[in-house]
Amino acid sequence: MTEAIRGFWVASATPLAADGSVDHARLAAHTKQLFGKGVDGVVLFGTTGEGTSFNAGERVATIEAMLKAGIAPERIGVGGGFPAITDSIALTRAVLGLGLRHVLLLPPYFDRSVTPEGIEDAFAAIIDGVADDRLRASLYHIPQVSGVAIPTTVAANLRKRYGKQVAGLKDSSGDFKQFQAFRAAAPELAITVGNEPDIARAMAAGGAGTICGMANLLPELVKGMIDGKAVEARMQAAADAVVKTPSLVATLKAILAAQTGDTGWLRVRPPLRALSDGTALKRKLDALMAPAIA
């Protein structure tokens, strides 16, 4: 499990305390509950986890708390993308020192005019700056959110330059042709998908598994897809009900609050705004889960 992220990983939501800090105890409990339902690992501070709203120190402190709670380091990945390369280097060095190996790296975002060569330079600067053979980085492709795509040539070149230090790529574009292009250009990369309805066909086409947000809510349904069960229609309907809302993160947290009876899950960091109630959406997902997955 340590060479690359494979199998069933969750892009975890980040629970917050009343003062807006990360609620470490709630996050550890959520993680352990997911592990009990067949999840292999969690990625913290990705898109679903409001990652860009947390600085490097907050991310490191959260990982330290997770380790103290008994979560094994090989089952934790962390979002390590920042606009500043030096921040990515500092965070990555810190988490490697704590025993983690999996860091998801966004291309530096905000400047939408960067060239493929510039994107490759940025990733190379991070890896060279970290200078640690323990690193097993996954490139993170989510251009509809970050505004900067990872060209297939860049993924292939980085794998050739750094070998196992560039272990994988998470494709959250939602475009299956893009997944296929990454597979063709860089077949040695462990490519996971973030778009849940694509999980089964991606794995059939040589994909490594998934890192996805819907598993916070419906781990059994995602596990069914991993196991090859015919639940794609249910997953598409569930994803449509959550992902197509104005704020994915606020919606997902509101449903978690309704599922658990814990209103603390409603909290989000600005500029997001919390929803007041997720009961109606919870009922919609409950209906999709009946009958139980056999």
Describe this protein's structure.
Keywords: Lyase, Schiff base. The chain has one domain: TIM Barrel, CATH 3.20.20. Strands 1-2-3-4-5-6-7-8 form an 8-stranded parallel β-barrel, surrounded by 5 helices. It has 294 residues and is of the alpha/beta class. The protein starts with 6 loop residues before the first strand and ends in a 6-residue tail after the last helix. It has helices at 24-35, 56-68, 85-97, 116-130, 143-146, 152-162, 176-185, 199-204, 219-226, 232-243, 248-260, 279-288; strands spanning 7-11, 41-44, 76-79, 102-105, 136-141, 166-171, 190-193, 209-212. The mean pLDDT is 96. It contains 12 helices and 8 strands.
CATH architecture call: Alpha-Beta Barrel
* CATH classification class: Alpha Beta
Assembly type of the chains comes to single chain
* CATH fold-type name: TIM Barrel
Strand line-up in the sheet with most strands: 1-2-3-4-5-6-7-8
Describe this structure in a few short sentences:
This protein is of the alpha/beta class and 294 residues long.
Which characteristics define this entry?
Dihydrodipicolinate synthase family protein; alpha/beta; 43% helix; TIM Barrel; 13% strand; 294 residues; globular; schiff base
Task: Map the helices and strands.
Elements: E1 7-11, H1 24-35, E2 41-44, H2 56-68, E3 76-79, H3 85-97, E4 102-105, H4 116-130, E5 136-141, H5 143-146, H6 152-162, E6 166-171, H7 176-185, E7 190-193, H8 199-204, E8 209-212, H9 219-226, H10 232-243, H11 248-260, H12 279-288
Helix pairs in contact: 2-3, 3-4, 4-6, 10-12
